[in-house]
Amino acid sequence: MTCWETLQAYAFRSIGLGENLLPKSDFTLCQQVTLIGSGLIWNIYFGVLALGFGFLLAVGIAVAKSSSRAVIRKPAEWFVFVFRGSPLFIQFFLAYEALQLLPKSGINLLGITVETAWTTRAWAGALFVLFLNTSAYAAEIFFGALKSVPKGDLEAAEAYGITGWQKFRRIQWPTMLRLAWPAYTNEAIFLFHATTLVFFSGFPAFRQMGDALYYANYFADKTFNPFVPYPIVACYFIALSLIVTGLFALVNRRLNRHLPSNVKSRIRLRPQIIR
């Protein structure tokens, strides 16, 4: 099988397209690069969706933590404490076991039977765990940024009659994002790396359709040589991290576009007139 035929057969193997069976022997470098790259689709899926939905929940939790009302603040604090204080691997394991306890026939809600079998699949159950985990970490980042908003800005807004939602939207929100974005970039990179734990926890790979590390582990077990597939995974994730860093850098530049340090000064020629 040529490398081009390998690409056609295994490029989208992780999502059920192409060859049904994995190679059993005579593994080539092209097969390993292609299959591991195919598995990266799942890592990108988990990372993008968990990051997108987690951003919204994290902002809400950060605002709740900064509330003066204990009934709002305490649940947010405990949410962050639980998901930051426990290992992600254990969260995957406990979530899978809890979802397995749901009735196999579904749950009856107001006469409508809601299926539960899909919740134990990695695309749903593991995504939900990643969503909650990154929300907790990001919420703490945004909470720290909220507390770092200069009091002078808030007092100036109140002096102009800007309060409540308008103050949050026009003063606190943009300043919070600007202050939190570098740390949030690190959280985004960590989240993409953490997606490799999905199929090493309780969630099974349906029809051997796993992520990048799943296929790397498959080749390492078959060839007894981990020094080829694992560096391939590392190269893929380094490239993915560069892409994430670049995209977040563009957003960061947009958030800080009004600062004087980001305004390019024009060179003005002022000839000295000698008298």
Quick rundown:
By secondary structure, the protein is mainly alpha-helical.
Secondary structure blueprint with pairings:
Layout: H1 3-10, H2 29-65, H3 70-85, H4 88-100, E1 107-109, E2 112-114, H5 122-147, H6 151-159, H7 164-194, H8 212-223, H9 229-255
Helix pairs in contact: 1-2, 2-3, 2-5, 2-7, 2-8, 2-9, 3-5, 4-5, 5-7, 7-9, 8-9
What Rg do the Cα atoms give? Answer: 24 Å
CATH topology group = MetI-like fold
Describe the global form.
Answer: globular
CATH class: Mainly Alpha
- Sheet with most strands: strand arrangement: 1-2
Mean pLDDT across all amino acids: 91
Main sheet attributes: strand count, strand direction, barrel closure: 2 strands, antiparallel
| Number of DSSP-assigned strands | 2
The CATH H-level superfamily is MetI-like
